[in-house]
Amino acid sequence: MVDRSFADPALAALYDTLNPWGPGDDFYLGLMRAAGPVLDVGCGTGRLLRRARAGGHRGRLVGLDPAAAMLVEARRHGTDVEWVLGDLRTRDWRAEFDLVVMTGHAFQVLLCDEELREVLRALHQALRPGGRFVFETRNPAARAWETWTPERTRTVTGADGRAVRVWHHVDGPVVGDRVTFTETYACDTWPEPVISRTTLRFLTPEALSAYLHEAGFTVADQYGDWARTPVTPAAPEIITLARRASRPT
Questions:
Q1: What are the tens digits of pLDDT across the range 41-69?
Q2: Is residue 213 scored above 70 in pLDDT?
Q3: What are the b/e assignments for 66-90, b being 16+ CB within 10 Å?
Q4: Which are the contacts of 31, defined by CB distance < 8 A and separation ≥ 6?
Q5: In 3D, which of 88, 133, 128, 129 has the Cα closest to residue 239?
Q6: I need a surface site. Which of 24, 86, 126, 156 has the fewest CB within 10 A?
Q7: pLDDT digits over 95-141, tens only?
Q8: Rounded distance, CA 222 to CA 239, Å?
Q9: pLDDT at residue 4 is higher than 50
C-alpha cells in the first residue's frame, strides 16, 4: 500500500534512501521480534521484515505489497521471507498471524468507509484470537499538510550517485478529512519528472477507535509519537495498537 509512484522501478530502488531508517522502524521492529508469525501490509522493499529475520526472528514472516517493483527490491535482498504481490482484498488468510503491521501511514490511503471496513475485516480474519494490529496515521490536529510546500524541496543521492529532488504541493483546499497533494521526483538525467497525485484521509483518534471496535478490535493503546507519549493536539502521530477481541459486528 505504498505510494503508487513506487511502481516505477527507478523510484523503488530509491525507496530506502528516500525513507531512511528511523524511530518508527525501531518501534515496529521491537514488536516483530517479540511476536510469532508476522504480516507486514504494504511492506515496500521489505526492510523491516529483513531486519527482523537478521535479528533472530525464526518464525513466519510475510510481506504484502501491490507494487511489483517494490517486491523486486525485497526479493533481491531477502529470500527467507514470503513476498506476496497484492492487497488484503485479494488474499484469504485465516487466523494465521500474531501480529499485523501497516507502516508508512499506509492506513490513510483507505478513503471510503466501505473500503476501510473491508480491510479491517480482512485484518481481523488474518489474526489469531488475541493477535495485534499496529499502525500509525498522522494526527489531523497537527495539520502536517500545511508544511507540504514546494519550498521544502529535499535532495537525496541514490546508490548510482544520481541526485533526486523531491517536493510536495497540496492540491486545492482540504475537503473534510481528506487532503490531496502531488509528490514530484526530479533528476537531471531523467527525461521528465515523476509526479504522483495522492489523497489521504486524516481520521481522529476517536474515529479510528470506532472503526476498529466495529470490526472486532479493542484499542489497547494510542501514542502521539514513537516515544509512546500521549496523543495531544500537537502530537504528530496517532500510533494505534489494537487487539483482535471478538468477531466483527
A1: 999 999 999 999 999 999 999 999 999 99
A2: yes
A3: bbebbbebbeeebeebebbeeebee
A4: 99, 101, 132, 134
A5: 133
A6: 86
A7: 999 999 999 999 999 999 999 999 999 999 999 999 999 999 999 99
A8: 5
A9: no
Phi and psi angles of residue 34, each rounded to the nearest 5 degrees, phi first = -95, 0
Q: List, as one string, the DSSP characters of 170-209.
A: E-SS-BTTEEEEEEEEE-TTSSS-EEEEEEEE---HHHHH
In the chain, count H helices and then E strands.
6, 11
Output phi, psi for 19, to 5 deg: -125, 75
Q: Which of 229, 227, 224, 219 is nearest to 239 (CA)?
A: 224
Q: Beta-carbon neighbour count of residue 98 at 10 Å?
A: 20
This prediction has a pTM of 0.93
How far apart are the C-alpha atoms of 200 and 178, rounded to whole Å? 6
Do the beta carbons of residue 104 and residue 2 sit within 8 Å? yes
| Structural Rg of the chain based on CA atoms | 18
What the block records as the C-alpha cell of 165 is 529532488
Identify which has the larger pLDDT, 119 or 76.
Answer: 119
Residue 58 falls in which region: left (phi positive, over 0), alpha (psi -120 to 50) or beta: alpha
